[in-house]
Amino acid sequence: MKKIVSSILALLIALTGGYAISDSSTKNSSTGVENQKLAIELERVIDGDTIVFNENGESKKMRLLLIDTPESTTTKTDKVQPFGKESKEFLTDFLTGKNLSVEYEVTQKQEDQYGRILAYLFADGELVQEGLVREGLARVGYEKGQEIYLNDLKEAEQAAALEKKNIWSIKDYVGEYGFNNK
Question: 18, 87, 117, 152: which could join 62 in a potential S-S bond, CB 3.0 to 4.6 Å?
Fold first, then answer.
């Protein structure tokens, strides 16, 4: 029986182009659905909340779900926002040399209107979004209220705000829908 299971698993890995569903999974308490984490390969970091990754030889852009970081370039804003470069640098350092995987949120779309993948990102099993929020380099946003990691992110955000870390160190900088010009 073990040989059959091992053979089937090896076949699945081969058919998915080397992408394996990791041993770890998360059960969404609101839906009872088990979410699987899929291994990915990082190509580059665009900014603090957007990366490019490789899936089966295809480059895909990914927006980190449930967070917003200040802009690190002038593309969307007239100037680089405070802590934008720091959030990009933190994300780059945090991901370098680690095993990366993504997990989709069953209560949200898997792609946004710009064609970017929307998912949670894990580095060596640690939720990347939580690391950015905990360091005060991202705010929690774009939530509907039922997401599996929302409470963890909200707790990390409250702790960072209380400690006045980075984005929280500038009075009235963090707004309900983004970052106020400072």
Answer: 117
- Domain 24-179 in CATH 2.40.50.90? The answer is yes
Task: Tell me whether residue 116 is one of the annotated catalytic residues.
Answer: yes
Q: What is the CA radius of gyration of the chain?
A: 18
The catalytic residue among 71, 103, 130, 147 is: 71
Tell me which of 63, 103, 105, 157 is the catalytic residue.
Answer: 63
Q: Is 157 a catalytic residue?
A: no
- From the candidates 55, 111, 116, 143, which is the catalytic residue? 116
Residues 125-170 have pLDDT tens digits of 999 999 999 999 999 999 999 999 999 999 999 999 999 999 999 9
| Helix H or strand E segment including 87 | helix 84-95
- What's the start-to-end Cα distance of the chain, in Å? 64
Overall pTM surpassing 0.90 (yes/no): no
Average pLDDT over residues 7-20: 39
Cβ of 20: how many Cβ atoms within 10 Å? 15
The full set of domain ranges for the chain reads 24-179
The H or E element that residue 160 is part of is: helix 150-162
Cβ(110)–Cβ(118) below 8 Å: yes
| Cα 162 to Cα 170: distance, rounded to the nearest angstrom | 12
